[in-house]
Amino acid sequence: MNKNSLILFVASVFFCVLSYCLYSLAPNKDARFDLDSPTYERIGQNFSENNHLVDPFSENEIPTPALGYPLFLGILYKLFGSDYFYIIFIQIILSLVCLFLLYKCAKTLLNEDAALFAVILGSLNLGFFVYAQFFLTETLLITFLIAGFERLLNFFKTKQTNSLLQAGILYGISVIVKPAALFYVFILFFFIGLYGVIKSLPVVKLLGLFACCFYVPVIGYMVHNKMQFGVLTVAPLMYENMYYFFLGELIAKDEQIIPKQAFERIEKSYQGKKRNDSARWITAKEMLNNFIYNRPFFIVRIWMLNMIKTLFGLYANQLKFLVNPQLKGSDNSFFSKKGSLGEKIWHYVTEGTDNKLIQGLALWNIIFMAFQYFFVIIALILLLKQKCYFLLSFFVTSISYFVFITGPGGCARYRMLMEYYLVILAALGIMVAYQYVRNRRFSIDYQSLF
Asked: Which of 270, 289, 388, 408 has a CB 3.0–4.6 Å from the CB of 246, allowing a cystine?
């Protein structure tokens, strides 16, 4: 076994061992649920038993989340029965696939050494461990997102149209799991078109093929929703985020009331209308517009605060739910802590659980996050100095997009949408530092790729 294979093997074994340790912490299935997990579970169980991809609590009303993850659960229940072990096991396997895809992306973009650094970073990144333990969309979602990115990089390197088509399909399927990439596709359009211009490729043809592959699964899913629920849409998630969660946060902070009171006020404005009915949101829209016109800077401040939560939240905070299922939502929010910065960090790490492993992982999460962001900055400086403007703008734009869309309600789990970009950039930053220590200058073979 050569050095590279040994590193990959050790990283995989470490990942599996820690995943097993985390699996053994949860007292029961309910400990693996977050706020939106029961909905996924109900729909998945209903599909496995009745072949109907609907929420049994409201069969004629379109569910808030997209149905890709409930479908995934339903298929696994059909294959393996009601034992949730297999769901967690498959999600751990998908996380390992993500590590392999990180390796391929970094190798395509940089070199073998950087690819190994990316795998090591991924195997030490709690995000890839944590969400495999929960009934949440993140593991399945990022598998499709990273796979789409790997295929896109392969297209940039080889100019093979098949790779571009595969990227389009994978990004399109990710929208059915969670519509995070629904507007990200326009950023991809821009960079694919720019690449086509740089390389004198048929831009219109490339964009047309990519768009078709992206929108076939998306439109197919929308047609399903039209036939099943009478609404031609992906999911009302965007409306819920803006006119329920974000508006509720604005009202609660503006009037200094608890969020539950703000949400109850919004729910009264529905007047019994279902999610299928666009009139459900009329009053909520008016309330949000009132904030926009009269308190624009207040809105920007709350939006920015949520983006900060996404960028700097701890994945380990989610792990506390495993041993303390009563801890839900923002019960252990960093921003609710009192005292100095150091005291806030200490309370954030230690409160919510007495489990020493999770507290240790929370402390590691802080150290690793600071370490990763430091090397991400080094990587971005290198891309700028070496005039790799295409790569620099792609990474910055992609990361900015995924951070921005979390403005209605930020938390650490949403950072998974772009964590793979951060890992690859950090691997590049480590390569720069590694070569500097060896008195060598690291440069990207930019021309061969772009």
From this structure: 408
d(CA 106, CA 305): 31
Residue among 306, 309, 302, 275 nearest 409 (CA): 306
* 268 within some domain: no
- Helix 259-268 to helix 247-255 angle (10° resolution) is 120
Quote the domain boundaries for residue 370. 29-238+345-449
pLDDT averaged over every residue in the chain: 89
User: Is 408 within a domain?
Assistant: yes
Q: How far is CA 110 from the centre of its chain?
A: 24
| 239-270 per-position pLDDT tens digit | 888 999 999 999 999 998 888 898 888 888 88
Structure-token pair, residue 6: 């040994």
Map tokens 């600071």 to a residue.
370
Neighbours of 102 (CB within 10 A): 28
Alpha-carbon gap, residue 372 to 282, rounded angstroms: 43
For the chain, the farthest-separated pair of C-alpha atoms sits apart, in whole angstroms, at 69
Whether residue 248 is contained in a domain is answered as: no
In angstroms, the CA 336 to CA 252 distance is 14
Sign of CA dihedral 322, 326, 329, 334: negative
**Residue 340: its pLDDT value, please?**
78
Give domain status of residue 19, yes or no: no
> What is the token pair recorded at 56?
């049994």
